[in-house]
Amino acid sequence: MNSKIEKSSAHSDKASANDLDTDICVSGGGVVGGLAALLSAQARPDLSITVLDASPAGQQDPRTLALARTTILTLQRAGVDTTRLVAKTAEIQHIHVSERGGAGSTTLHAATYDLPSLGKVVSAQVLQEAILAACQQHPNISWRSETSLQSVAYETDKVNLRTQGKQAAHISTKLLVAADGGRSMIRQQLKIARREEDYGQTALIANLTLDRDHMGWAYERFTEHGPIALLPCGARQMALVWCVPSDSAERYRELQDADFLAALQSEFGFRAGRFSAVSGRASYPLYLLLAERAVFHRTLLIGNACHTLHPIAGQGYNLGVRDCVDFARLIGEQASADGEVAHRALLEYERQRQSDYKRIAGLTDGLVRVFSNQHAPLVAARNLGLLALRKHSLLSYPLARAAMGYRNLLGER
Known about the structure:
Blueprint: E1 4-6, E2 19-27, H1 33-43, E3 49-53, E4 64-68, H2 69-77, H3 83-86, E5 89-92, E6 94-99, E7 105-109, E8 119-123, H4 124-135, E9 141-145, E10 147-154, E11 159-165, E12 170-178, H5 185-189, E13 194-210, E14 217-223, E15 226-232, E16 237-245, H6 246-254, H7 257-268, E17 275-291, E18 295-296, E19 299-301, E20 307-308, H8 316-334, H9 343-372, H10 376-391, H11 393-403
Parallel strand pairs: 1-10, 2-3, 2-12, 3-9, 6-14, 12-19
Antiparallel strand pairs: 4-8, 5-8, 6-7, 10-11, 11-12, 13-16, 13-17, 14-15, 15-16, 17-20, 18-19
Helix pairs in contact: 1-4, 1-8, 8-9, 10-11
């Protein structure tokens, strides 16, 4: 049965034992949707929160996420057991930014800012499990696994949902949160306009084994074909995000592991050491998506449903985390005793978030375009800029704050 959204009166089915009334329903049980439920449950333990998690049983998320310092602090305050992540987490203590064929480069160091790390790298699957475990400690969260949204019907005072799957039910909620990813069914069916641009690039992701310890270094290397990011994992393990032109992606996908490593080594160089093995190879297309609106009648879009970014600079998940933080603040400060949130409060939330989206989307989109342009004067300017950042720590301060996930790149707020 196709998913659909109806704008009508209440669903006509008779009430059943599967009917459920909830104050907040989060459609999407990933690392953004789960965190949104967790933070809002903390902010208002008196409100009921239902999470619809459509993931099939046993499905593993292959992604590796770079968690900014602010994201780590948010997870800790949310009650996520970060010690659960320790065994499979690596700290980013240094970041090296360079351009292939250019003399300019710059580095950032946690010690410069008297911090133990600039961020951490973690398996998305491990993080998801830790967030779910934290949610299970809150009796006001109902987690409905293997259950997806089938249809939505709007009324003045509520949203009626029909779900399908393992824990199918008719659900009435005062507020619907769309955390259902970049191809969000809710956003599409609401016909919310969006800015969408295909970068003409595909991200090749994999896990690499090196001939030496990474020593806490992360690398962002810009090439004429696209950026290459290496993130520290195990002692001699790094996660790879290699952006290549989409019209040549299939050729890379078909390479045997030894040939893949040789091509990568040629493109990246030997600064991180020699690549000796590769596993977990996968790929996905890269595009920019910004929804024109983040709110609708009793509906709010967060995470990739609202914004999907190029992975350059690793800002995507951290931006989604700030959605969750501001959403929880909205619920804590604006929801009435019976769970109602005025539409004007939703609009104010949207206004605040849109400024963050534009800033981070502008940063990532700008980096993609600037470093993709091989016009000689611009190449020279880029290299001079990287050298200036390396020589003058005050110039690199905003870059370091962006890497650590701060909203204000020049101050402490």
